């Protein structure tokens, strides 16, 4: 069977296998849709892919998630046996992608069915979800890739980087230093030129697997996508630049990354399973055009507790990248597996033909400028250990590996007489090291130091009313697809007495219109005139104002007084009130007066 040609075909194939559901019931883009995606990811027996066909406020758009959140779904997308072992799926992916097929340039395609240009652009007309409670805004780019082109060569990069809606025509984006998009952008920024970019929402599922792939610098992902598909990827020219984009994507957002301008972005519940990195000032993307298919599908990957689409696809693509890198260096590598539950870790099966081969592997992998950004632990195992069986890997780790390193180590202690990693003389003396991996948070950390767990069960991210809606939809549309053994008390509604009791949390509903955003999570300065970033809690648009904040409305005049919640993502004991004295503008307009604004929407670097 051929690989699927687009997301619509994938949904049909998944439906045939009982691995997708269409939900016609009205769903709120604000947390509800994403919370249900998150639950499907967290169940041990994974739920189906979900297509929401009736999205609140967006009658002609749909939202889909969980399209590739299992190896079985990836196999279906690739057109291979869905019961195939993980090792075989990775092998087929590697073999196909190495048979590169250049793209085919065409003049039109479904993604050009609707075209919006310049002044007509309004990002809030896209059914972008609020993915996690406490995120910096609505993220339109969670399952997509971005197209950028090196200004000095013909190298075109596809990379997956998150993007948040800031206002009607501005996105803020995060890219990791050392990534290929960052390397290309630095060239533009050095010359003071904006970098053309195209964000591809809902590319065909096979091509979407190339976004998280780590290729050597200078190699274009589109050629490998052709190899994976077994035919050229059809590309069409963008409306406002010479970038080439897939002609059958669901939506293309065309824009340019502005040089030396940074705007607020984040926080966001990310792939390690926690919201770790705070909000910061990151890339500003001015949007110039949007093209899209009729009734577009906004594809979403709700990053968080494993396993979601990003975990599964990155497990495959990074396993392939690491194996290819080791083979180029002549390492007798047999298999490589980057477990989706532990994306900082990689298990490498190797024939240890010479001493200290693990040291050589360490230097190669951590010396790679791309791979080193994604890996923190390597586990090197011999041929008799199956790297895809984490039980075997753990047994080898704790019975063959000498823990006499740092961490919490007691280097000289009593041990058993059959400790395989110790030399004979130490075994005879029953003397060896002990090590403890402490997985609890440090006791000296304050509540503000603790990362917020990105899970549908976390009431800070998904309030009880949203959790209850998820439980209702789960029982109605999804539970029948799950094995009977997984139907337990998790499906019970969240009781009212389980909700967070603080007044601030209860006040986060209709009464609160705005949130204040600060550079740090410090407390708000009372009764002092300052510039503040505020974000409305209806559409999540950002703007800047000047005013005075107080914990009591009685301390302020009635002039433009609004209730606010602060700071973003952390419930306070009591809400504040702000007396707005002056409007300072939206994201890019505010950047024109950077020196006067101080804490503004944009900062000059």
UniProtKB/TrEMBL annotation:
GO process terms (BP): cinnamic acid catabolic process; ferulate metabolic process
Domain 3-octaprenyl-4-hydroxybenzoate carboxy-lyase-like C-terminal: 313-412
Pfam families registered for this protein in UniProt: UbiD (PF01977), UbiD_C (PF20696), UbiD_N (PF20695)
Any Gene Ontology CC annotation: cytoplasm
Occurrences of domain 3-octaprenyl-4-hydroxybenzoate carboxy-lyase-like N-terminal (ranges): 11-91
Transmembrane segments: none
Superkingdom of origin organism: Archaea
GO molecular function, one term: carboxy-lyase activity
Residue ranges that the Swiss-Prot or TrEMBL entry lists as coiled coil: none
SUPFAM superfamilies registered for this protein in UniProt: FMN-binding split barrel, UbiD C-terminal domain-like
Residues of the 3-octaprenyl-4-hydroxybenzoate carboxy-lyase-like Rift-related domain: 106-304
InterPro entries for the chain: UbiD, UbiD-like_C, UbiD-like_N, UbiD_Rift_dom
Similarity comment: family membership: Belongs to the UbiD family.
Record protein name field: 3-octaprenyl-4-hydroxybenzoate carboxy-lyase
Annotated source species: candidate division MSBL1 archaeon SCGC-AAA259J03
């Amino acid at each position: 069977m051929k690989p699927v040609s687009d997301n619509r075909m994938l949904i049909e194939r998944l439906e045939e296998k009982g691995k997708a559901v269409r939900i016609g019931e009205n769903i709120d883009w604000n947390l509800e849709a994403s919370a249900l995606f998150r639950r499907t990811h967290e169940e041990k027996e994974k739920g189906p892919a979900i297509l929401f066909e009736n999205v609140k406020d967006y009658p002609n758009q749909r939202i889909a998630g969980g399209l590739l959140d299992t190896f079985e779904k990836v196999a279906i997308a690739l057109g291979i046996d869905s019961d195939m072992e993980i090792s075989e799926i990775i092998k087929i992916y590697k073999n196909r992608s190495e048979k590169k097929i250049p793209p085919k340039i065409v003049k039109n395609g479904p993604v050009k069915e609707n075209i919006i240009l310049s002044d007509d652009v309004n990002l809030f007309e896209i059914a972008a979800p609020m993915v996690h409670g406490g995120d910096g805004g609505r993220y339109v780019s969670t399952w997509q890739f971005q197209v950028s082109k090196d200004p000095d060569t013909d190298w075109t990069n596809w990379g997956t980087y998150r993007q948040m809606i800031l206002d009607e025509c501005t996105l803020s984006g995060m890219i990791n230093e050392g990534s290929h998009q960052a390397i290309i952008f630095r060239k533009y920024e050095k010359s003071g030129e904006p970098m053309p970019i195209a964000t591809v929402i809902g590319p065909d599922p096979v091509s979407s697997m190339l976004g998280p792939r780590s290729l050597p610098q200078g190699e274009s992902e589109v050629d490998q996508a052709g190899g994976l598909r077994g035919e050229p990827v059809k590309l069409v020219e963008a409306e406002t630049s010479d970038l080439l984009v897939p002609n059958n994507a669901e939506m293309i957002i065309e824009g340019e990354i502005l040089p030396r301008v940074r705007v607020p972005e984040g926080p966001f519940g990310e792939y390690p399973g926690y919201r770790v990195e705070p909000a910061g000032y990151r890339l500003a993307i001015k949007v110039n055009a949007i093209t899209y298919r009729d009734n577009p599908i906004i594809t979403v990957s709700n990053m968080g507790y494993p396993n979601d689409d990003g975990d599964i696809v990155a497990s495959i693509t990074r396993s392939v990248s690491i194996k290819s890198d080791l083979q180029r260096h002549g390492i007798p590598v047999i298999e490589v597996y980057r477990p989706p539950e532990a994306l900082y870790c990689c298990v490498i099966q190797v024939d240890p033909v010479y001493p200290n081969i693990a040291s050589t592997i360490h230097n190669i992998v951590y010396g790679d400028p791309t791979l080193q950004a994604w890996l923190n632990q390597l586990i090197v195992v011999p041929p008799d250990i199956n790297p895809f069986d984490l039980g075997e890997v753990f047994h080898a780790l704790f019975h063959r590996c000498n823990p006499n390193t740092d961490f919490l180590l007691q280097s000289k202690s009593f041990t058993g007489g059959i400790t395989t990693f110790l030399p004979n003389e130490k075994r005879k003396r029953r003397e060896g090291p002990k090590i403890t991996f402490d997985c609890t948070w440090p006791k000296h950390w304050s509540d503000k130091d603790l990362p917020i767990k990105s899970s549908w069960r976390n009431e800070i991210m998904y309030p009880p009313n949203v959790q209850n809606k998820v439980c209702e939809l789960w029982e109605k549309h999804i539970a029948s697809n799950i094995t009977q053994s997984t139907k337990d008390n998790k499906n019970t509604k969240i009781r009212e007495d389980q909700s967070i009791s603080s007044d601030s949390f209860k006040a986060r509903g209709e009464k609160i219109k705005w949130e204040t955003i600060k550079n740090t999570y410090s407390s708000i300065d009372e009764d002092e005139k300052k510039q503040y970033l505020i974000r409305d809690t209806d559409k999540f648009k950002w703007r800047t104002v000047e005013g005075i904040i107080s914990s009591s409305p009685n301390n302020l005049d009635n002039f433009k007084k609004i209730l606010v919640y602060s700071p973003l993502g952390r419930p306070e004991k009591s809400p504040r009130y702000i007396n707005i004295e002056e409007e300072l503008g939206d994201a890019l307009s505010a950047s024109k007066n950077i020196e006067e604004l101080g804490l503004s929407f944009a900062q000059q670097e």
